[in-house]
Amino acid sequence: MVSLNRNEIRIRIESLNSDQKKAALHKEGPAVVFAGAGSGKTRVIITRIASLVSEGVPASSILAVTFTNKAAKEMRERLVAIDPLLQQARLGTFHSVCARWLREFSRELGFTSDFTIYDDKDSLQAIKSILKNYKEDLSGESPRVYLNAISRAKTYACLPMEVEKLIAHDPNFFPPMGVDVYKRYQSYLISCNAMDFNDLLMNMLILLRSHKLVRETLQLRFKYILIDEYQDTNQTQFSLINLLVNKSKNLFVVGDDDQSIYSWRGANPQNIIDFHKYYPSAEVYHLEQNYRSSGCIVKAASQMISKNKTRSPKTLWTDREFGELIELKNEYDAETESWFIADSIVEDKKLYSYNNVAILYRTNAQSRQIEEALIKKKIPYRIYGSLRFYDRMEIKDLLAYCRLLVNKDDDVSFRRIVNLPPRGIGEKALETVESIARDSDLSLYESTCELLRKEEKSRANLKLKNFISLIETLRSYLDQNHLENFLGELLQKIDYRAYIEKKYPDQLQDKLSNIHELGSAISDYSEENSRPRLANWLKETALVDNERAEDSFVEEDRELTESVHLMTLHAAKGLEFLKVFIIGVEDGLIPHTNSMNDPFQLEEERRLFYVGMTRAQKKLVLLTAVRRRVLNNWLSYPVSRFLTEIPSECFSRELKSYPLEKEEEKTFSSGDLVYHEQYKSGIVKVVDKDSGFLQVIVDFKSYGLRKVDGKKIKKITTIKGQGSFRYDHSI
């Protein structure tokens, strides 16, 4: 018989600090551990499991639940490293352990043990089938909206017959006929012997509520339950856990309410904050010593997060050296912000290798200019949780329109957009077009035009005719208008927003931000070139993307190649890096504009910034910009209010010096003669304060009407008797 390695377990226990040890050696009854960022919470969970087994508790009677397969795998590996016998403890995510139990007790719910688990696409197809069977016309409603509402209801532990409380709180929780669709959807799943991903938790909760024998079987099986990241539990998970706990209430939960950043998934930090209300006899432990970050970063983050009112009081501290001050950089715009980061990474490569550097941002759209700067500097990078900017669906859709406008022979782009957004062009019509193209050696666009010429009066080809007319109209617009205005016209003509709002309602904001960033890229190009053309911009974009492809590494070698890490603040949770850049630390981005007027959401934004700051081990750089471009407009955001909550001694420069000192304000009037470095001389037509920045529409002698930044033009006067201009140096 193999004996347990008790000596190794004893060594592990002795290596803990006093607070960690108290928590890990907790005996019987409920306990909550408030574990600050970088305080070694996983170590405590692992040591507690090992300690229980060393005291005679069968490993198979211990259940440890976390949120990701990666975290569960790490726990298992660390337990095996102590002693292989410890792997008998049941470890897994909420969904994996529930799926295992549901297969065991499936008959109690009317399923067989080989039930199918539907993924998102399967569920969406089921909703589409259900909507088709309604007498009412629901064709204008997005199946995705129904599925999202049903998924949210399940995170709140609400069955179809229980949704009245949701509707009472939010009458618009469900779309038209939504409650009935929910009922039919659940019946559909049962008829298919299937469950969706959310049902794994929901059906397990139903099972525990309604079947005493199942509940008692699992309570008897698992005498000790440990939950990681408890601050991220939703109502269904919370209810499920409480039903699993037996009379001895050996529930041990670990988490950090200061890192609760998933309310949009249904996570409720009150579950951990109010743990003692549900379990009055619970022992409360605090892990406040940070082992990750420098003293400066810990002090700054701790002071900032203390401004939240809804939290369990705790003060993060460290015995590590104070280290470098937090670097504040206020750049002119997103482009200079990106170039500063790229230059800094190159300069500090000996101190911080690429693998040890992360660039964090609030929204995915912010990655575009960072990517371009890194590519031009030949700095390898990886994006986590998202695609590279020019690989994103909505960007590829709009670029396909641009490419077809420039090149009628681009069959790849034609195929992508001919029915996007859907315009009812059938497969038969497209097969005819393909056939003409093959037989006549024509492009698909030319083949379509040829088909329309041959069958001019055919009503069947009306939709193809409308598509060709759309392309020609857009091409004409391009010839007659400024390039920077083109994207807005394209979006309006194809009603692209309505398309993504219907198809991807839960991703609408993210996709719109990416589209706006694409507009910014076009506007940047237009401003930098005296004769901007769509074809040339596409070439520049293709060259940048090609450079990225040539300099990037093979997929299977990614883990072996050093690269800078790019990700949103949400995606960064649980990770750590020697050096961290956080860009866009401005009101409107951090905190996000959608959250600034909601006290609850504002506190979550502060927690999100806290998560970002505490990813840094040695060096933290916070960046703001005087202005940022959205489409072809400049916006100015004030520096983030969260920066004012950080002690001034933690910064490398005084915060009060932000923003950069403004240049002496210029004034222009209609009729003024002005000079621009690229466009030369012109006459002011319109003066506009656009989001705090002086924008001037000028009729340039050689380039016509252009909207330019007031900082980039100067007043000039005409010398009497001469046709030349001179600068007015008094301005």
How would you portray this structure in words?
With 731 residues, the chain is of the alpha/beta class. The protein is built from 27 helices and 22 strands. The strands form five sheets. Strands 3-2-6-7-1-8 form a six-stranded parallel beta sheet. Strands 9-14-13-10-12-11 form a six-stranded parallel beta sheet. Helix 20 (427-440) crosses helix 21.
Write the layout of secondary structure elements.
Elements lengths: L5 H9 L3 H7 L6 E5 L5 H14 L7 E5 L2 H14 L7 E4 H11 L11 E3 L1 H13 L10 H13 L8 H6 L8 H14 L2 E3 L2 H12 L1 H10 L2 E4 L7 H10 L6 E5 L14 H4 L1 H4 L4 E5 L7 H11 L21 E5 L2 H14 L9 E5 L5 H10 L4 E3 L9 H14 L4 H7 L9 H14 L3 H11 L7 H19 L5 H9 L1 H8 L4 H21 L5 H18 L12 E5 L8 E6 L16 H15 L2 E10 L2 E3 L2 E3 L37 E4 L3 E11 L2 E8 L3 E6 L3 E6 L6 E3 L4
Parallel strand pairs: 1-7, 1-8, 2-3, 2-6, 4-5, 6-7, 9-14, 10-12, 10-13, 11-12, 13-14
Antiparallel strand pairs: 15-16, 17-18, 17-21, 18-19, 19-20, 21-22
Helix pairs in contact: 1-3, 2-3, 3-4, 5-10, 6-7, 6-9, 10-12, 15-27, 16-17, 18-19, 18-22, 20-21, 22-23
Descriptive tags:
single chain, 731 residues, 27 helices, disordered C terminus
Produce a short descriptive summary.
By secondary structure, the protein is of the alpha/beta class. It has 27 helices and 22 strands.
How many helices? The count is 27
Specify Rg, calculated over alpha carbons. Answer: 30 Å
Strand order of the largest sheet: 3-2-6-7-1-8
Largest sheet: 6 strands, parallel
DSSP helix fraction: 40-55%
- What amount of the residues lies in strands? 15-25%
Which structural category fits the helices and strands?
A: alpha/beta
Shape: globular
Estimate the mean pLDDT confidence: 86
Taking the alpha carbons of the first and last residues, their distance comes to 92 Å
Low-pLDDT residue spans:
549-558, 657-663, 719-731
Number of β-strand runs:
22
